[in-house]
Amino acid sequence: MQVIILSSAHDVAVYAADRVVDVINTKKNPVLGLATGSTPIALYEELVARHHSRQVSFRQTVSFNLDEYIGIADSHEQSYRTFMNQHLFNAIDIMPTNTHVPLAQSKEVAVLKKSAQDYEASIQQAGGIDLQILGIGLNGHIGFNEPTSSFASRTRIKTLSESTVAANKRFFKAGEYQPELALTMGIGTILDSRAVLLMATGKAKAEAVKAMIEGPISAMCPASALQLHEAATIVLDEEAASLLALKEYYQWCELKRQQLHEGSLI
Ligand code: PGA
Predict the structure, then answer these.
(1) 146 is catalytic
(2) What CATH number should be reported for the domain whose range is 9-190?
(3) Hey, which of 83, 84, 136 would you mutate to test ligand 1's pocket, going by the most ligand atoms within 8 Å of its Cβ?
(4) Does an H or E element contain 80, and which?
């Protein structure tokens, strides 16, 4: 894994935006995997700013989001479709028909299973994901792949863990229906992406980050599956990196990588 430790959450967003823009500018038909949550908001703000200053166009870009709550309408203010429209899609020139968020508003199992299969097929038809953006849950989840999710899992119905429901309660009004199920890309789906970029900021994520990078590969920490990916970058602020045992080594590796990039090893 490439572990990059930067001084602030803003720097993490700028780094992630550079990677996204690089994919868009180097691929003919770029396919992005996108994430929701508080962490990528700063990345989306950065991308919108770059679009407004004409540094990037999303005209040719296709996107696939990781997950969506089951049983709430796309137009619900807490749906991930609404989140993406508000934070990114409505503010850039991506074609609405090129943006994909799992369709999960039905409460019928057969409809949801078909929707999950169709989502996998759409990713394949688009040529696979070039760069998958990820956050990490306090419990180590990626997408809504909660602890004990199979590393071979594909897009499917997933029961949210108690801690995830509790962590997301803040977004729902008192007494409002809060989903306990989601349709999420599987860990196998995520591992199929040609590259993954996981962003984590703040002290609260330090334990999960340590388990992901330095812990054993275990279904108890779904993000540890990324140790099996040959092009996984983890970009952290100082707080999220604070519990890493090999912090200085990762910084040393980045220095060496920079020297290699410049053509000199010593
Ligand atoms: P957060 O969520 O960015 O809101 O912390 C991350 C996640 O649960 O994947």
Answers:
(1) yes
(2) 3.40.50.1360
(3) 136
(4) helix 80-87
Angle of helix 41-52 relative to helix 80-87, nearest 10 degrees, comes to: 40
**Domain limits of the chain?**
9-190
Ligand 1 centroid – CA 243 distance (Å): 19
Q: Is 237 a catalytic residue?
A: no
Tell me the CA–centroid distance for residue 52 and ligand 1, in Å: 26
Q: Is the CB of 161 under 6 A from ligand 1?
A: no
Q: Name the phi and psi angles at 4, rounded to 5.
A: -120, 125
**pLDDT tens digits, 148-176:** 999 999 999 999 999 999 988 988 999 88
pLDDT tens-digit readout, 45-94: 999 999 999 999 999 999 999 999 999 999 999 999 999 999 999 999 99
Would you state the pLDDT for residue 167? 87
